Amino acid sequence: MPTYPSITASTPLTQPPAWAVLERKLIEVMNGSVHPFLEKYTHPDGELIWGDAWKNSRDGGDDLYESSYNWPLLYLLGGGEHLLAEGQRLWDAITRQLTRLGPVLNEYERGYDQFHQAESYIYFYLLCLADPANERNRERAQRFAGLYMNEDPAAPNYDPEKKIIRAPHNGSGGPAWGFTDQEPPSYGWGASMRVYGLPFEDVEGIRHYDDLKDPALAQRMGAVMQERMGKGDVVGNLMATSLVANAFLLTGEEKYRGWVTEYTDAWVQRAAANGGLLPDNVGLSGVIGEYMDGRWYGGLYGWAWPHGYYNIGMAATVAGSNAFLLTRRSDFLDLPRTQFDRVMALGEMRPMNPDEMSLGAHWLEQFVALGDDPRMFLVPYRYSDSGWFDYQPMAPVYPTAIWNISADAADWERVEAVRRAEPVDWRQTVSFHNKEDGGHEKPWLRFLAGENPNYPEQALQASYQQVCRRLELIREDAADLTQVSIHHWQQLNPVTTEALIQLTLGAPQIIYNGGLLHCRVRYFDLDEQRPGLPEDVAALVTALEAERTVIHLVNLSPFAERNLLIQAGGFGEHRFDSVRFERRISDYPGSQHAYAAPPLTSESDEQPVNSRYLHICLPPATEITLDLATARYVNEPSYQLPW
User: Fold this and answer.
1) pLDDT per residue as tens digits for the range 532-574
2) Is the pTM of this model over 0.90?
3) How far is 573 from 20, CA to CA, in rounded Å?
């Protein structure tokens, strides 16, 4: 194995930090939490216990994968080996199950929108990152990416001349024309969809969502949706850049970088032609608004319906971050910046009513923070013929994700602009576990700003509470598993990783719809030769600057030495130039005849590193704080392991 610059900690652990004890306890509890889930919800072969039938729909395959998507992520953070093994076993089993049921072909979604596909394929990306030597996954990754590079003759998804993905629904079966396979196409009334309103405002005889209770009007709307939303490219397809970037990070093959750059650039140019805002639809001829009477809005999962900026902001951030990672072209980050800036500029103080929001359930933290005063700074998430509408809080996930990549003062100011606009205290930690396993950016950012010192303990306690709650829900679950909702398992997954990502990797939670694990540092257990923090070791990133990273490491074991490698960047894309730390110069443990050790004294030391890796030896019961001079985005990114 290569040798790397090395430091041995010399400061004895006289007062174990509460955050360190909580961090290791949380990992320990989550290591065990997956077993009750497996015992209750899976067959011996790993398939989910469920009715062996599939409705006539393209929707739903993602929901099965989402039940255990973050198990390999917990392994990457330092969870048990079984998390990778079980995570892979379940992914393989669910793929077989969905192949038998219909929505998966050749191990990949047959044809559905990238908004949903991206939710489930973060699972696959994490498996690839956790075990890049897995040959079966390497083959899959290249084959999946090839679906969007016309390498599979049966799946001509991409038009390289127009630089478009040819249909909003796409996959291993090629373009899936139309928005439904139902004949005749219909978009009928549904209680769960009522909150999103009408896909189009100009369909004759349909003025309100409740009009769709009339079967004839439902078919009229369905016919319009089939025509307008059934072909051409949509902005949500930008999330497919992660599928291709994943193949690049595994193989380093230039063709994958070229495709991500080409496709993202095409959307950058479309946004520029539209005054900065991303248009959400492009016809097969390459013309914006080709099937929308020239309108730049109205595409599937676009500005008008159903979520607007919620998923467009994600698509722009995911693609911009991927393209920047692979090229180091900072202008790619202007794509998500501009979407944020334009929407943010439209914000105003308004009463916050969940019944008037398409994503009302997403804002638990905001409602708790507001207390009795219902007024909040809200921005419009959607745009249609009648203008901007659907006012909701500006989710900090968007500017935080951009700042996480750029470390630019202007992007931190974008975060601060949201904070200043909101009449709430960002230091408050509210315990909840949402679908994205996120939503706690605000108190973490205040911790990094030096104004929320108790956040690590509070975040870990909140995470522990949520694990315990979900384990109790599993114990109490008496549902007939053959008849449950397709979302049943993901709502009971006991693993939560947001706090661990923030505190140990110095990064926000991954973008749920297709995001890769962009983070300041990662860890490897040198003794066990595996990713993640070694047993008994806790880590806390306490400061993040453009050229500086500060990490506090603790070995809680009084018995065993632990050796870890710190990697600069989630994909080794950064470099540590030097490190400053305190070296003990006093005697320890002192004489056996003394009642206590001598007073602890130390001196500052600095060593050159000039590597993407730094080896830290932690003797039993020691700690060390590392102040790392960091050069960002100077190395080719890769999933390559350090040995």
Assistant:
1) 999 999 999 999 999 999 999 999 999 999 999 999 999 999 9
2) yes
3) 27
Contact in structure between 419 and 478 (CB atoms under 8 Å): no
Give kind and range of the element (H or E) at residue 146. helix 135-146
Q: Which of 293, 280, 171, 184 is nearest to 232 (CA)?
A: 280
Q: Which domains does the chain have, with CATH numbers?
A: 6-12+521-589+599-631 (2.60.40.1180), 18-178+230-505 (1.50.10)
Strands 613-618 and 6-8, bridge-based pairing: parallel
Partner residues linked to 541 by β-bridges: 551
Pair 365, 430: CB distance under 8 Å = yes
> How many CA atoms lie within 13 Å of 328's alpha carbon, on the beta-carbon side?
9
Q: Is the dihedral of CA 356, 358, 359, 361 positive or negative?
A: positive
Report whether 280 contacts 168 (CB < 8 A). Answer: no
pLDDT at position 372 over 90 = no
> In the numeric block, which tokens belong to residue 19?
């955050």
- In one letter, which amino acid is 117? Q
What is the three-class DSSP state of 379?
strand
Pairwise CA distance, residues 495 & 417, whole Å: 32
Report the C-alpha gap between 125 and 109 in whole angstroms: 15
| Three state DSSP letters for 61-104 | HHHHHCCCCCHHHHHHHCCCHHHHHHHHHHHHHHHHHHHHHCCE
